[in-house]
Specification:
By secondary structure, the protein is of the alpha/beta class. Helices cover 32% and strands 16% of the residues.
């Protein structure tokens, strides 16, 4: 034991004891936790190694490519990683590919020095990756090569945001065919033919037809907000997805705000088909204009497991007609209806 006049030999502290100290810091508020880890890393190389190995979750904001590669090489044991406005060059991608324990990855507005195809190849090779969220920006990435994710057998959740600059529909279908364990799929504002304004077009119709995912019966959550302007045929694509618990097919936001007339392509006939999901559906969002009346809305009475419902900016369904159909199952907080006259 060190005498009162001697400095303690912190390097002699067992590795397990250092791990215990690090574990104790996790009970601190986030800002104190980060400060504590920074201070502990300065004790000596032994402690720095122990702390780096103990970090399982990390958020990196606004890091240039040269720093990204070094940080990812340092934290090879990460299980959850969020990158916001970070630069990714080939060296950084190689370091990311060595994070073999990574289970959750979120990439938002990244600055790329490599082709998008290379990014998707690296992500597909991560053996433990279960949840992936990628938000595109003017700098990238594009969906070119996205189909490589079909080889990611561990993937259970995929979220793509703002991928409307190029058409990703066919690639997403290919991913679902290969990565058959995906249960949660989200596409937010991610169909080029729809785009930010959400106006209908022949291209949008082709994109909806191409999105034939009836084979993906393992899906439990399908969120397509702002990616399609649904019609009767589009709803039929999901008739076989009898394990769906969450379905969001809200129209694009700008379509909702500026095109307040009913979408004549979504009618009672199409909406009644949603009763095929009665055995599983607990959350339903159908915001945006449509041509469904109270007659079609009777389908809601069959959804006996429904817990939340959003029909914001509905054109033809009044609250007085809807409320009796869902009374007793939805709380006020889980029911959202904003009606415009057709």
């Amino acid at each position: 034991m060190a005498s009162p006049t001697e400095a303690p030999d912190w390097a002699a502290l067992p590795f397990s004891a250092v791990e215990g100290i690090v574990a104790h810091t996790r009970s601190l508020p986030p800002h104190q936790h980060r400060s504590a880890l920074s201070a502990l890393r300065l004790v000596n190389r032994h402690w720095r190694s122990a702390i780096d190995d103990s970090i399982r979750s990390l958020t990196i904001p606004r890091a240039p490519p040269d720093r990204m590669a070094g940080m990812l090489r340092r934290w090879q044991h990460l299980e959850a990683l969020t990158l916001t406005a970070c630069g990714l060059d080939e060296a950084a991608l190689q370091a990311l590919g060595r994070c073999r324990r990574l289970q959750q990855l979120s990439i938002c507005h990244y600055l790329s020095g490599v082709a998008a195809r290379r990014l998707w190849q690296v992500l597909a090779a991560l053996p433990a990756l279960q949840s992936l969220s990628v938000e595109a920006s003017d700098e990238g990435p594009s969906p070119v090569g996205l189909a490589a994710l079909a080889a990611c057998s561990s993937l259970t959740a995929l979220e793509l945001i703002e991928f409307h600059r190029e058409e990703p529909t066919a690639d997403v279908v290919a991913v679902l065919r290969g990565a058959s364990h995906i249960q949660r799929l989200a596409l937010y504002r991610s169909v080029r033919a729809t785009g930010r304004l959400g106006f209908g077009s022949q291209g949008a119709a082709h994109a909806q037809q191409a999105f034939d995912i009836g084979f993906a019966t393992q899906l439990t959550s399908l969120q397509l907000r702002g990616s399609f302007t649904p019609d009767d045929a589009f709803l039929q694509l999901f008739a076989a997805l009898t394990n769906l618990r969450c379905l969001d097919i809200s129209a694009p936001l700008m379509h909702t705000l500026f095109v307040r007339t009913a979408n004549p392509e979504l009618t009672d006939d199409g909406f009644l088909g949603i009763t095929r999901l009665a055995g599983s559906l607990t959350h339903l969002e159908l915001g945006g204009g449509h041509n469904v009346t109270e007659n079609g809305a009777t389908a809601l009475a069959a959804l006996t497991k429904l817990q939340s419902l959003s029909l914001a900016f509905s054109n033809r369904m009044s609250s007085d007609a809807l409320l009796p159909l869902v009374a007793g199952r939805l709380t006020q907080a889980s029911l959202h209806i904003t009606a415009y006259d057709a």
